[in-house]
From TrEMBL:
It comes from the Eukaryota. Pfam families: FAD_binding_3. Residues 6-171, 296-339 form the FAD-binding domain. The chain crosses the membrane at residues 6-25. Belongs to the paxM FAD-dependent monooxygenase family. The keyword Cell division does not apply. One of its GO terms (molecular function) is FAD binding. This is FAD-binding domain-containing protein. The keyword Isomerase does not apply. InterPro entries: FAD-bd, FAD-dep_Monooxygenase_BioMet, FAD/NAD-bd_sf.
């Protein structure tokens, strides 16, 4: 079987770009990453690694490198602004139904782990290399130039250069990422010990026997919400006019914004150390295409489909893109398809999925910010059975809604790519027929309703 040498240039060493580089090397390709920053790293606070991507971290051995910095939590509590509990998800149930863990990790630890595995795999990462120009050559290759005048030629260029992507601006200059509403977010971390030693806040992190518990807590209100996991906090609020850049804010403003909330979370906000920023929530697309007409330049992650953060799926979706695209490129390396075929398969599989994630993220933001009234009352009533330990067929608590759990967290990007590849190799007919896929999905959803401990038996069959 012929094997082709494939040299891929990735623009941007963010979470999406670095994971993609690891997956391409695993598929047999060569990768050079060009990163604008003068040193590698990630700013910001914690990030959720939901089961759809924790399974990739495990497969690629990245979890081993990050080690104990991957934190597991036990439950999700949905609350009204005053702290009253209205919904509940046992995280173990999601993990068992999807067959993979749900972690929280600091961005910095995640990124370090990705970079270490990429380097060990032989990925070349060039820092201080801001890409300023791309040219599609007659030969079918792509020429890339950095601001400092270095020149490269690649068989394929992947633009994983974030929401202000130069690659996207080159391909689609008319596209402008925008905040869909005035909604934006502060991000902050309060050390766990600070929360634990304060008698008012202790009960949020300790059980009645004084054992440490790690939970995800959401306080919902019309003018904002607070999502705190391990006291990594995302504090949603609204600004008029909407903001489109990250900017530092005064702590007094953060405190004022959450006046009238549960006294426990107000006390935790008082403990936020200085250095908080306001983050815009910019949405890109959905675009009609993610690639150049020759299909030798393609977008990935926020560059293609930045989304609101309400389902914690932005980075996760970038990682899924990378895993999927690499699987398609394995066809090129194996001599069974052209780069154009691989990019077409990638767009066919990933564009609808990314668009779904954008929609469900926006929807969850709407649910969490409902004004007091009939819709909010209906939301709270629908979640109520969760407090009695029941598992409703559908729930507005989307982190625990069975359909949403399977669509977001049960998804396996590599498995999906293999399905598209098998269809491609069989002239459009998938090897596994649609009925088998439907059955698998039905099994996964049924799985959600099994008593605790029964999930793995079924998950292991899938
Ligand atoms: C408040 C908030 C909370 C969030 N929480 C979560 C969460 O819990 N879970 C989750 O999955 N997602 C979350 N997200 C979303 C997530 O942060 C992004 O979706 C993710 O970081 C995108 O990754 P990326 O690799 O596509 O792009 P980026 O992380 O933006 O990386 C782009 C990289 O490209 C580089 N670059 C830019 N221009 C150039 C150039 N010209 N040449 C070379 N390099 C260049 C940049 O320096 C950067 O390193 C959250 C977002 C916000 C705002």
């Amino acid at each position: 079987m012929p094997t082709n040498d494939l040299h891929v240039g990735i623009v941007g060493a963010g979470i999406g770009g670095v994971l993609c580089s690891i997956a391409i090397v695993r598929a047999g390709g060569r990768v050079t990453i060009l990163e604008a920053a003068q040193q590698l790293g990630e700013i910001g606070a914690g990030i959720q690694m939901t089961p759809n991507v924790s399974r990739l971290l495990i497969r690629y051995g990245i979890d081993k490198v990050i080690g104990n910095d991957l934190v597991r939590f036990s439950e999700l509590n949905m609350r009204r602004k005053d702290g009253t509990k209205i919904g509940y998800t046992k995280i173990q149930r999601v993990e068992e139904a999807t067959g993979s863990p749900w972690w929280l990790v600091h961005r910095h630890h995640l990124h370090n782990g990705l970079v270490e595995v990429a380097r060990q795999s032989g990925v070349e990462i060039l820092i201080d290399s801001r890409v300023s120009k791309l040219d599609r050559l007659q030969t079918g290759k792509v020429a890339v130039e950095t601001e400092k005048g270095r020149e490269f030629e690649f068989d394929l260029v992947i633009g994983s250069d974030g929401v202000q992507s130069i690659v996207r601006r080159t391909l689609f200059p008319e596209v402008k990422p925008r905040p869909p509403t005035g909604n934006c977010a502060f991000r902050a971390i309060v050390p766990y010990e600070e929360v634990r030693k304060d008698p008012l806040t202790r009960e949020l992190v300790e059980d009645e026997n004084g054992n440490l518990i790690k939970t995800m807590e959401v306080w919902m209100a019309p003018t904002g919400y607070i999502n705190a996991k391990d006291f990594n906090m995302v504090l949603s609020h609204f600004r008029d006019p909407p903001v489109d850049t990250v900017c530092p804010v005064d702590l007094e403003e953060v405190r004022r914004q959450y006046d009238g909330y549960d006294p426990r979370i107000r006390r935790i906000i008082e403990k936020i150390p200085p250095g908080v920023s306001r983050w815009p929530l910019l949405v890109t697309g959905p675009l009609e295409s993610w690639s150049s007409p020759e299909k030798n330049i393609v977008l990935l992650g926020d560059a293609a489909h930045s989304m609101t953060n309400h389902m914690a799926q932005g980075a996760a979706t970038s990682m899924e893109d990378g895993a999927f695209l690499a699987r398609c490129l394995s066809l090129v390396i194996g001599g069974k398809a052209t780069v154009g075929d691989a990019v077409t398969l990638y767009e066919k599989g990933r564009m609808p999925k990314a668009s779904y994630k954008q929609q469900v993220s926006f929807l969850n933001g709407w649910i969490w910010h409902l004004p007091d009234g009939p819709a909010q009352e209906a939301r709270d009533k629908e979640m109520e059975p969760e407090l009695r330990g029941e598992v409703p067929m559908r729930s507005p608590n989307l982190y625990g809604d069975p359909g949403c759990v399977q669509e977001c967290y049960g998804y396996d990007a590599e498995k999906h790519a293999d399905f598209e590849i098998s269809a491609f190799l069989n002239d459009g007919r998938a090897v596994r027929d649609g009925a088998a896929i439907q059955q698998e999905r039905a099994d996964q959803i049924a799985n959600w309703f099994l008593p605790d401990g029964e999930h793995y038996k079924i998950a292991s069959r899938l």
